[in-house]
DNA sequence: CTGTTAGCGCCTTCAA
DNA sequence: TTGAAGGCGCTAACAG
């Protein structure tokens, strides 16, 4: 339990000087700084985070708010965030929020975050306006990853474009009845990724003069099981569907399983396109629109640190996206669907 | 920025009483407690974690040390840990450590953890004896998940048995030359899961009177790409191999891809069994030995909390494991391999 | 059951 | 460039 006092004595200086020397502040002579660092090292001294937070008002901790930690996109964003922030001396505190289908999730409580973190990263968590306002009122840097409300720093894809790209790929292959598996139907926010992707899907269909109808859109809960069951529901409603755009690869892979469950061949009977670039998509030759969540997490962290340093960050950083054409999407069978 | 003082004034009591009332300590009249809680609520008061940690010596934070956050097993353990601890009022601080093939990873530094966390969870991170000793010297409750050194509380599978079970399944199907894809070759610790699984694999072969040889064992780095490339290496070395046990499903799925890359049919030319129970294994009909990492994380958290409460925890909690037979493992082709 | 009084360990003026 | 001193906001004895 060596404290700053012991280091000060060992180095023959005051605690104030130890504090300055160890934190790299100016106005410490090189000789003194080196001596202090040597003694601190020798004694195994590390400042108590609580004490230094209390005194300085800074925690060197970032809060990461997210609905899931074990889904592909989220796990990779978190990985990027953690490694980036840790390498720069920041801790990452995880806060998960259930956004399961039924019950409304726990609300984001700004009071808990107030003196616990220096900055906040909201990863793929749709918030209502009050929640956003209350977080912003904390007056900590705030960065959204995946999607975010207008007026706040956000690192994201162009979801509309991504949804349109996936859909256009199917249209180009000759599909005329294209369904869509979206994520959790979110009623609290107007800016979650599945909303933009669905908009892109609808836009692409409309531009091509094809049918756009609610009967073609089902919810897949953003997971494998959801994708699997939703495809059955979709096919029940619309037996004429020949292709599907899923809002995530996990749902797309679930859709492949669901198609098989009812004896449909992919892509023979049903073409499927996902969005993400999941490593395991190759197992079923999944055609997808790939993104890089690790990089988004890393960059969002850097942006947050810039803001912590008083700099202004660009409001929106849009990430590139790339079509990876494999085998889960092909031309429709001739004679299938309406002529 | 309402502090305890304001709540005390509003409720007409001292700060000590506010502190007691809000933390549910005894010796506060019901009426007083309610009044305090009401005022705290009204004023949006939440105690400053730094201040209360500094004063009490407790942080209500658990450090989670892990090599990866985006691999299946780890992501699910973390999920279980986070949700369990959060629901009980504890924060989770993430610490990742690269254990990539080449360079030695950053060492675990106990000094950093000392006054930052109340307890430590080591998830699937093999440590050398010095690191274990230095963590133990912190005198915080310490729980290992996945595997751990003798003498410390560990939540895990019976890896030997699991490896043997997977291998026995292939032997029962008639295979005589069975290869193994293990995880990162770890030279710092003697107790990581792949080590136990490999031991089980060797034991099962030996018990059946079959060949056990280093040429049959390759490293797959515990990820999809590693599994994919290692299977090619294995087949190059041992063209007579007809089946493989992989130490994780991710490597097993990679192995499926690798087999396909060289035109081998699974299970026609090569049977593959994994260990984990990954949701996406079904995409390729992966036969596997399933475990439940979410539950392991949740239970390890509870154990840690018990220890924090002064209770003694059982040294080892072993989790059940279950063979999920699908289609990636079948009988060898007649005439294939040595008679 | 409640209030008073010291710190917890560090950072940050301010003065030297 | 350095030191002295006063908090940061809360908890933990101890009294009452």
Summarize the structure.
The structure is a homodimer of 339-residue chains. Chain A is an alpha/beta fold. Chain A has twelve helices and twelve strands.
Cα distance, first to last residue of chain A?
Answer: 79 Å
Task: Specify the CATH homologous superfamily of the largest domain in chain A.
Answer: Response regulator
Tally of helical segments of chain A: 12
Low-confidence parts of chain A:
none
- Most extensive interface: A-B, 45 and 45 residues
Total number of β-strand segments of chain A? 12
Q: What CATH architecture of the largest domain in chain A do you see? A: 3-Layer(aba) Sandwich
Helix/strand order of chain A, N-terminal first: HHHHEHEHEHEEHEHEHEHEEHEE
Within the CATH hierarchy, at the fold level, what is the topology of the largest domain in chain A?
Rossmann fold
Structural class of the secondary structure composition of chain A?
alpha/beta
Oligomer class: homodimer
The best one-word shape of chain A is: elongated
CATH hierarchy class name of the largest domain in chain A:
Alpha Beta
GO molecular function, one term (chains A, B): transcription cis-regulatory region binding
Protein name (chains A, B): DNA-binding transcriptional regulator, LacI/PurR family
Domain HTH lacI-type (chains A, B): 2-56
Keywords (chains A, B): DNA-binding, Transcription, Transcription regulation
């Amino acid at each position: 339990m060596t404290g700053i006092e012991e280091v000060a004595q060992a180095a023959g200086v005051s605690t104030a000087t130890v504090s300055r020397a160890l934190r790299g502040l100016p106005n410490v002579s090189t000789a003194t700084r080196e001596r202090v660092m040597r003694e601190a090292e020798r004694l195994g001294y590390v400042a108590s985070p609580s004490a230094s937070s209390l005194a300085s008002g800074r925690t060197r901790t970032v809060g990461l708010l997210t609905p899931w930690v074990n889904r592909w996109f989220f796990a990779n964003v978190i990985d990027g965030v953690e490694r980036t922030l840790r390498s720069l001396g920041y801790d990452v505190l995880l806060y998960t929020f259930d956004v399961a289908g039924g019950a409304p999730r726990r609300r984001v409580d700004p009071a808990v975050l107030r003196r616990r973190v220096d900055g906040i990263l909201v990863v793929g968590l749709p918030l209502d306006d009050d929640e956003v306002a209350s977080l912003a009122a904390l007056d900590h840097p705030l960065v959204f990853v995946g999607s975010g409300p207008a007026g706040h720093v956000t690192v994201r894809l162009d979801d509309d474009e991504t949804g349109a790209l996936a859909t256009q790929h199917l249209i180009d292959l000759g599909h005329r009845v294209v369904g869509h598996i979206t994520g959790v139907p979110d009623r609290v926010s107007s800016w979650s990724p599945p909303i933009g992707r669905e908009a892109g899907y609808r836009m692409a269909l409309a531009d091509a003069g094809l049918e756009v109808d609610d009967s073609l859109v089902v919810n897949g809960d953003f997971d494998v099981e959801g994708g699997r069951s939703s495809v059955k529901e979709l096919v029940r409603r619309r037996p004429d569907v020949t292709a599907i755009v899923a809002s995530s690869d996990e749902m797309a892979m679930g859709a492949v399983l669901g198609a098989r469950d009812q004896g449909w061949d992919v892509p023979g009977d049903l073409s499927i396109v996902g969005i993400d670039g999941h490593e395991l998509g190759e197992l079923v030759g999944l055609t997808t629109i790939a993104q890089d969540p690790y990089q988004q997490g890393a960059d969002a962290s850097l942006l947050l640190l810039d803001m912590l340093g008083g700099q202004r960050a660009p409001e929106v950083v849009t990430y590139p996206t790339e079509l990876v054409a494999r085998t889960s999407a092909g031309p429709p069978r001739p004679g299938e669907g309406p002529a």
